[in-house]
Amino acid sequence: MSVTAEDIKKLADEKRLPLSERLANAIRNSAFNKAAEISPYAACIMPILSELGWRSYKRELIEAIPHFANHLDLVDLRNMLVTLGYESDEKKTSVEKLNSSLLPCLFESKSGGIYVITKKSGNEVTYFDAHENDYRTGDLLNEKGTAYLFTDMHPTHAMTGQEQSADQWFVQILKRFRKLVKHLVAMTFMLNIIAMFVPLFIMVVYDNVIGARSTHTIPFLMVGIGIALCCELIFRLVRSKTLGLLAGRLDYIIGVETFKKILSLPPALTERSTVISQLSRLRQFESIRDFFTGPSATLFLELPFVLLFIGLLFLLGGSIAYIPIVMIAIYTLFGWLWFPSLNKKLVHAGHARSARQRMLMETFSGLRELKALGAEGAWLELYREASGEAMTRTFKTSTSHALINSVAQSLMTIAGVSVLTLGTLKVMNGDMTIGALIAVMALIWRVLSPLQGVCLAMLQIDQISQSIKQLNQLMRVPSERNSYKAGLIMPKISGKVTFDRVTFRYGQNEDPALIGASFDINPGEFVAIVGGNGSGKSTVLKLVAGMYRAQAGMLSIDDTDVRQMNATDLRRVIAYMPQKASLFYGTIGQNIRLNQPLATDKELIKAADQAGILSALNKLPKGFETLVGDHTTSRLPSGLVNGICLARSYIRQAPIFLMDEPGTSLDKITDQNLMDHLEKMRGKQTVLMVSHRPSHIRLADRAIVMVNGMVAHVGTPGEAIKYLTEMQR
Q1: Most CB within 10 Å of its CB: which of 307, 405, 410, 607?
Q2: Quick one: 456 and 522 in the same domain?
Q3: In the sheet that 114-121 helps form, which strands lie side by side, from edge to edge?
Q4: In this structure, are 538 and 640 located in the same domain?
Q5: Domain span at residue 138?
Q6: Phi and psi dihedrals of 98, rounded to 5?
């Protein structure tokens, strides 16, 4: 089937595409002048990057675009620049006050103008006007607004990202919010100063107003305390908003950075963990966000200022102030004795809940098999046992937590009664006024409430501490080489692959998957890798794709050891069709372009045509813009899913093409298209194909037979098929 102009026109209809895809098309076609039609902030992208000296590739720029955005605002622009390695700080100022050494900067004026200021000399300012989509020079000094100043966060050639600081990763993140934390501490200090006015106001009313019957002073006192309470309300609202901002930004940074780190880890560190265990680790990091959005953060801000109230207690009540000090010691001793035991119960309860959740995940993924086996009753009994264990552990934890709550409340009540008793004696002896006693009672609750709250929050604090430790440990795990670290610059690859006594095992306690494998594959050669299950066929492809590193021997591409190459760059010159087809959340077009974001619409349609799925896609209501991923993938025909994955591997004209059982789940037409395409690839790309189908094996120039991780035979496809047949007898 040939690609028609109508197919291209249908796909290229800009009005049907989301903003993110239109912007990506503009970048692919180097039509940056169209960015202004999409959004004024989109128009600023290239001027900013050009002035910052960004000389990377279009691919990284396309990957930084928000996935399904229908609009691109200032936040999206700043997030894109962060992804590309440039952070920005906002500063309210005028163009006249801008330091020329801080340029370039993005300037958003109060009048609505959006400019990229590149140079300032005297009264002349050189800038890019986003609304006019043009560079201009003129007098812009009187413009007032917000400037966004950029910082290059790329590691230098002498220092990698992990070597820039010896501090803990989370501490480094918190340092970004020093200003916010200072504002929070200052506001909390003012709130506590205002809170001290209330007991003093009560004391003045009882001792001076009521005792002296001085009614004319009441209005002045009421106005004063009213102003103080209004200020307190304003400070509390601002503090809550600031805490919410801090929590939101931390949640975003931790979420994005942990996800980025997981993606950068070698597959050997992630493939062996279950999905549920990895999700549990990620959920633990949410406790950090919950700490800042809940009352615990406020408690810890208030705690240092308890000393102010204890000092005021000494002034008003003398020795009464020793009562809260004794209570602090009792709270500390109780926590030291009780919390280790409670922490163990929490760990056991967490394990029990994880086991129950694991069973639920297994049930949803294998419900069809359970019904086919008629094993619902047995599986239900297992779930009852797991659920009962989780309930028992949770009950023990809840009981212990209730005990802590009761003890903390009782200690607080005892402290209040003690203060009242001692204060009454002081009043009767004339050492204290009644107003001072009432003020002291108000102060004692102000001192003990944060202490009780901290005591009850110790469990959450311990959980946060563990989460931060795990977060720091995750960030310390070595990543695969990225574009900023040392590695050979990828030359043009011809496609020669050499295995020289390569040995590899997936785990220390597992048998080797490859043992001393040696063979050569010439550029443009089509080689089939055959053998029984567990013979090491797929392992060969994974090693070539840079998914794993050989523990012994040498694997080289074009006579260069792959260990000297950047793993990410290596995979970008290799097309890989895995055994299990997977679609990711997004449109079909985005899935096909996943490993080649720069592919044009024409190349996209050509790849779909080569995979034999173009007619099927054209029959869909939204064609290439059809959303897939998640539960929708299971509704698509398996042949179409595999065809999309084939098109994904075809769209990149890579010098090395890896295919792992490509005939799995293909219908007759798609399989024939695959065989026709393999014939066309002969001599143009180096092809390594794992297959058990004789029809596919016969297409190859040579075949390698694998047995128990060793190369048993290298020869023609016919010889390999005969060798396998004799082995099975």
Answers
A1: 607
A2: no
A3: 86-94, 144-152, 105-109, 114-121, 124-129, 134-138
A4: yes
A5: 31-158
A6: -70, 135
